[in-house]
UniProtKB/TrEMBL annotation:
The gene is Ifnl3. Belongs to the lambda interferon family. This is IFNL3 protein. GO terms for molecular function: cytokine activity. Its main location: secreted.
Protein backbone atom coordinates (compact mmCIF):
# COMPACT_ATOMS: atom_id res chain seq x y z
CA UNK A 1 0.00 0.00 0.00
CA UNK A 2 1.24 3.48 -0.88
CA UNK A 3 1.60 5.89 2.06
CA UNK A 4 1.84 9.59 1.28
CA UNK A 5 2.16 12.35 3.82
CA UNK A 6 -0.27 15.23 3.69
CA UNK A 7 1.78 17.81 1.64
CA UNK A 8 2.63 15.43 -1.24
CA UNK A 9 -0.92 14.09 -1.22
CA UNK A 10 -2.32 17.63 -1.32
CA UNK A 11 0.01 18.53 -4.20
CA UNK A 12 -1.05 15.42 -6.10
CA UNK A 13 -4.78 16.13 -5.63
CA UNK A 14 -4.40 19.81 -6.55
CA UNK A 15 -2.38 19.09 -9.69
CA UNK A 16 -4.90 16.48 -10.83
CA UNK A 17 -7.87 18.74 -10.20
CA UNK A 18 -6.24 21.80 -11.79
CA UNK A 19 -5.16 19.76 -14.79
CA UNK A 20 -8.71 18.57 -15.30
CA UNK A 21 -10.06 22.11 -14.88
CA UNK A 22 -7.93 23.60 -17.64
CA UNK A 23 -9.21 23.14 -21.19
CA UNK A 24 -6.99 21.03 -23.41
CA UNK A 25 -6.58 24.01 -25.78
CA UNK A 26 -4.79 25.95 -23.07
CA UNK A 27 -2.16 23.29 -22.60
CA UNK A 28 0.87 24.51 -24.54
CA UNK A 29 1.60 22.24 -27.48
CA UNK A 30 5.10 22.00 -28.75
CA UNK A 31 5.94 23.19 -32.21
CA UNK A 32 7.97 20.50 -33.86
CA UNK A 33 7.97 20.07 -37.59
CA UNK A 34 11.01 17.81 -37.55
CA UNK A 35 8.92 14.78 -38.48
CA UNK A 36 8.44 16.38 -41.91
CA UNK A 37 12.16 16.72 -42.66
CA UNK A 38 12.25 13.15 -43.94
CA UNK A 39 8.92 11.85 -45.14
CA UNK A 40 8.02 8.24 -44.50
CA UNK A 41 8.20 6.08 -47.66
CA UNK A 42 4.67 4.69 -47.27
CA UNK A 43 3.29 8.26 -47.16
CA UNK A 44 5.17 9.13 -50.34
CA UNK A 45 3.94 5.93 -52.04
CA UNK A 46 0.35 6.77 -51.11
CA UNK A 47 0.71 10.26 -52.57
CA UNK A 48 2.37 8.86 -55.72
CA UNK A 49 -0.39 6.26 -56.19
CA UNK A 50 -3.10 8.91 -55.80
CA UNK A 51 -1.34 11.28 -58.19
CA UNK A 52 -0.96 8.55 -60.82
CA UNK A 53 -4.60 7.59 -60.51
CA UNK A 54 -5.59 11.24 -60.86
CA UNK A 55 -3.41 11.62 -63.97
CA UNK A 56 -5.23 8.64 -65.52
CA UNK A 57 -8.57 10.31 -64.78
CA UNK A 58 -7.29 13.54 -66.34
CA UNK A 59 -6.28 11.72 -69.54
CA UNK A 60 -9.88 10.67 -69.95
CA UNK A 61 -11.20 14.19 -69.46
CA UNK A 62 -10.69 17.30 -71.52
CA UNK A 63 -9.70 19.72 -68.76
CA UNK A 64 -8.04 22.85 -70.03
CA UNK A 65 -6.52 24.82 -67.18
CA UNK A 66 -4.50 28.01 -67.36
CA UNK A 67 -3.55 28.31 -63.72
CA UNK A 68 0.16 28.64 -63.11
CA UNK A 69 -0.24 28.89 -59.38
CA UNK A 70 2.74 26.73 -58.51
CA UNK A 71 5.10 28.30 -61.04
CA UNK A 72 6.97 30.86 -58.94
CA UNK A 73 9.91 33.03 -59.96
CA UNK A 74 11.45 32.57 -56.51
CA UNK A 75 12.42 29.58 -54.40
CA UNK A 76 11.05 28.77 -50.98
CA UNK A 77 14.61 28.94 -49.62
CA UNK A 78 14.51 32.69 -50.26
CA UNK A 79 11.73 33.10 -47.68
CA UNK A 80 12.05 33.52 -43.95
CA UNK A 81 11.03 30.52 -41.83
CA UNK A 82 7.66 32.08 -40.83
CA UNK A 83 6.99 32.84 -44.52
CA UNK A 84 7.83 29.24 -45.42
CA UNK A 85 5.42 27.92 -42.83
CA UNK A 86 2.72 30.34 -44.00
CA UNK A 87 3.27 29.35 -47.65
CA UNK A 88 3.07 25.62 -46.96
CA UNK A 89 0.01 26.08 -44.77
CA UNK A 90 -1.75 27.85 -47.66
CA UNK A 91 -0.63 25.17 -50.14
CA UNK A 92 -1.83 22.36 -47.89
CA UNK A 93 -5.08 24.17 -47.23
CA UNK A 94 -5.76 24.18 -50.98
CA UNK A 95 -4.71 20.54 -51.32
CA UNK A 96 -6.89 19.32 -48.45
CA UNK A 97 -9.84 21.35 -49.70
CA UNK A 98 -9.71 19.78 -53.17
CA UNK A 99 -9.05 16.29 -51.80
CA UNK A 100 -12.22 16.57 -49.71
CA UNK A 101 -14.34 17.14 -52.83
CA UNK A 102 -16.67 14.36 -53.97
CA UNK A 103 -14.97 11.86 -56.29
CA UNK A 104 -15.37 8.42 -57.79
CA UNK A 105 -15.22 5.60 -55.21
CA UNK A 106 -11.81 4.37 -56.37
CA UNK A 107 -10.28 7.85 -56.26
CA UNK A 108 -11.92 8.50 -52.88
CA UNK A 109 -10.16 5.41 -51.56
CA UNK A 110 -6.81 6.38 -53.11
CA UNK A 111 -6.82 9.81 -51.52
CA UNK A 112 -7.71 8.81 -47.94
CA UNK A 113 -4.13 8.31 -46.66
CA UNK A 114 -2.68 11.37 -48.42
CA UNK A 115 -5.60 13.49 -47.19
CA UNK A 116 -5.08 12.37 -43.58
CA UNK A 117 -1.34 13.04 -43.82
CA UNK A 118 -1.73 16.47 -45.45
CA UNK A 119 -4.45 17.47 -42.99
CA UNK A 120 -2.21 16.57 -40.04
CA UNK A 121 0.70 18.49 -41.55
CA UNK A 122 -1.51 21.55 -42.10
CA UNK A 123 -2.71 21.43 -38.48
CA UNK A 124 0.88 21.10 -37.22
CA UNK A 125 1.85 24.16 -39.29
CA UNK A 126 -1.07 26.13 -37.85
CA UNK A 127 0.00 25.28 -34.31
CA UNK A 128 3.54 26.42 -35.07
CA UNK A 129 2.39 29.70 -36.60
CA UNK A 130 0.10 30.39 -33.63
CA UNK A 131 2.89 29.62 -31.15
CA UNK A 132 5.94 31.12 -32.80
CA UNK A 133 4.75 33.91 -35.09
CA UNK A 134 1.12 34.79 -34.33
CA UNK A 135 1.45 38.35 -35.67
CA UNK A 136 3.77 37.57 -38.60
CA UNK A 137 3.08 39.59 -41.73
CA UNK A 138 4.08 37.92 -45.01
CA UNK A 139 6.89 39.34 -47.11
CA UNK A 140 6.12 40.98 -50.44
CA UNK A 141 6.91 37.80 -52.39
CA UNK A 142 4.63 35.69 -50.24
CA UNK A 143 1.90 38.32 -50.07
CA UNK A 144 1.86 38.46 -53.90
CA UNK A 145 1.63 34.65 -54.11
CA UNK A 146 -1.15 34.51 -51.49
CA UNK A 147 -3.08 37.10 -53.52
CA UNK A 148 -2.52 34.98 -56.65
CA UNK A 149 -3.88 31.95 -54.76
CA UNK A 150 -6.94 33.90 -53.62
CA UNK A 151 -7.59 35.13 -57.17
CA UNK A 152 -7.26 31.56 -58.50
CA UNK A 153 -9.76 30.32 -55.91
CA UNK A 154 -12.24 32.95 -57.10
CA UNK A 155 -11.70 32.63 -60.86
CA UNK A 156 -10.56 29.08 -61.66
CA UNK A 157 -12.89 26.14 -61.89
CA UNK A 158 -12.88 23.62 -59.10
CA UNK A 159 -11.54 21.03 -61.56
CA UNK A 160 -8.56 23.26 -62.44
CA UNK A 161 -7.77 23.96 -58.80
CA UNK A 162 -7.97 20.25 -58.09
CA UNK A 163 -5.65 19.44 -60.99
CA UNK A 164 -3.17 22.13 -60.03
CA UNK A 165 -3.03 21.04 -56.38
CA UNK A 166 -2.79 17.31 -57.04
CA UNK A 167 -0.24 17.59 -59.83
CA UNK A 168 1.99 19.72 -57.59
CA UNK A 169 1.73 17.61 -54.43
CA UNK A 170 5.40 16.66 -54.51
CA UNK A 171 6.36 20.33 -54.78
CA UNK A 172 4.18 20.94 -51.70
CA UNK A 173 5.87 18.07 -49.88
CA UNK A 174 9.27 19.53 -50.73
CA UNK A 175 8.09 22.91 -49.47
CA UNK A 176 6.90 21.19 -46.26
CA UNK A 177 10.31 19.58 -45.84
CA UNK A 178 11.96 22.97 -46.37
CA UNK A 179 9.70 24.64 -43.80
CA UNK A 180 10.52 21.86 -41.33
CA UNK A 181 14.27 22.28 -41.79
CA UNK A 182 14.17 25.85 -40.44
CA UNK A 183 17.61 26.37 -41.93
CA UNK A 184 18.82 26.87 -45.43
CA UNK A 185 17.12 24.50 -47.83
CA UNK A 186 17.25 24.01 -51.56
Amino acid sequence: MLHLSFPPLLALVLSASLGAALPVDQVKKSCSLSKYQFLVPHELKAVQKMKEQFEEIMLLSDRKCNTRLFHRKWKIAELSVPDRVMLVEAELDLATTVLELPATPTFTEARQKPLAFLTQAREDLRVCMAMESPSHQPSGKLRHWLQKLQTAKETETTACLEASAILHLFQMLNDLRCAALRHQCT
